[in-house]
Amino acid sequence: MHHPESQPRASAFYHYEVHPEHRPSQPSAPVVVAGAGPIGLATALDVARFGVPCVVLAEERQVTHGSRAGVLTRRSVEILQQLGVVEPFLEKGLPWHQGRSFYREQEVYRMIMPHDPDDRFLPALNLQQQYIEEFLVDACERNPLIEVCWGQKVVGITNTDAGAKLRVDSSTGEYDLDAQWVVAADGGRSTLRKLLNQRMEGRAYAGRFVISDIKASINLPTERLCFYDPPWNPGSNALVHRLPDGVWRIDLKLPDGESPEEALENARLASRINAVLSMIRQPVSWELDWAAVYSANTLTLPDYVVGRVLFTGDAAHLLPIFGVRGMNTGLQDSNNLAWKLAFVVRGWAPPDLLKTYSAERVTAAREICAEAGRSTRFMAPQSDGSRLLRDAVLSFSLSEDFPKDLMHWRTSRPHAYVDSVLNSFPEADQAFEGGVGCGEAVRNVCIEDDVYFLDRVGARPGFHLFAFAGDEPASAELLELLDAFSAGPVPVVRVLITGHPAHRDESHAEVVVADRDFKVHAKYAARPGTMYLVRPDLHVCARWLRATTGDVRRGLAQAIVGVAHAETLAAAADTDAATPAASRDREPMLEKRMSVGDLEQVYDVLADAIEDSGSKSELYLAKLALALANLVGDRTEVERAIRASLRDLPPRT
To answer: How many domains, in total, are found in the chain?
Structure first.
């Protein structure tokens, strides 16, 4: 029998609520979500927006322990706004937009995350995962379509064409639970992934970090602080973040070979925390709330749809913390999955629509793995070559600016589904000069003081049809087109965007946006008659400078049932990931550009410099390579020189 912890976890700042154990009230459900972390709870809320009942199985009886994810990106906050639950997050969280990096106790880089005056939210919001889950649980428990069942552990599953049968354990014994669809949101150690024998692809990185949450009175602003090669721990690095309630999170890279048990020894952990506090000139008393050891991975399942089980979040992929990708990528997963799952359950779309969830999000995960791998190789070099180049960048950073952006965090960003099979009318898309292209997430616009475009769009479920009227009353043709979608087989939210002061009639649209200064028109490169068709996850799937009702109907049909090529997209992603590098051509790769005399002089200067650099010659050559690459200024040329220089090296001894 499953007996989860029944006593509240100890904490220096957070009051844990132990929820009563609760079995599902019915023996079956259209959707069962396994996992009550942020991604599982967000998926339940998103599915319920479309009128689909959902059961959430929570293995524990209280929210998670520790800050864990800790940072919400702007795109994640926009998703929470779409779900109608954003207010407590904004009230509790700490927004920020910059970070500072230090090397040898000198500030060497200031990272400014992109922020447009049209963005309602700053790029990042610091908030412990305890609060993230608490606020989502509260929203789920207010929703009559969602049943959160605490203390219920999935221990078995039978997958059939018609549904799935879950075997669930509890303190009162095991039972069966039937579902049309199961969402596997059960985290990085996913039970369902193991039960279904699903293997991840990618790379598990060497090197560990210890993460500590401490409560302390520290007088520093909300920003990301990164310290490379601190004097008290050479070769390591440290990250410091401010969190609500006077909590500070410290991430430390561990020495190679140190075990998690050694890292978490009280005396050793306390010594390191004190060293960090001294380094930031805040030698204050503190209280430990939580600590854990973490390893970086860039892993993903090759397919997120396995029969009637849909993998999402960490159950589908494991990503490094650098760039706050884990939970934020998972929220984009859930936002993509939820509308498609709801459409299938409601009978608005065929089950094949769910294949596009896998195709789109596996492609996104592989791109994110590539980006995250770069961040990981900089923060925790995996080879002598990676360490040498990282050290070259750090050394340069004390005196030169050109390589500093290599320290950028490469923060999680909205994925653009530019190759999605749900997009249509590519010629019409290409006719625009700017705006928001097919596959991209919609962009916010500040219409007037504290009034934003996405505020007006709201949390209404369904496709969105943006109709732009310009500065004249909406034409009869435009209103007739909007009227054609007042009712139909799938929900469509009609949004009329007008700069005409007299137009406030909502009989032709669910939402009328007063665009007095034509900011929305400009952001979307729109003119009178322009139409945008937007998916329920607020990604553009078609747009026209001028459209007919037939155009919009075909675009809508493509976005719902036009999935014949989803397998092709997935296969292409697999091929791209597996294609080996082409064999090297044996023809000369570098043309002669220097005279013999000049080359001889460079040869002599280089030889002298290598001699002068002594035991640091490798570091010197790495810095020189980066400097010359910057002077060449052409990535293709530099990569050709790299490949040519790798030729005909003597074998390793």
So the answer is: 2
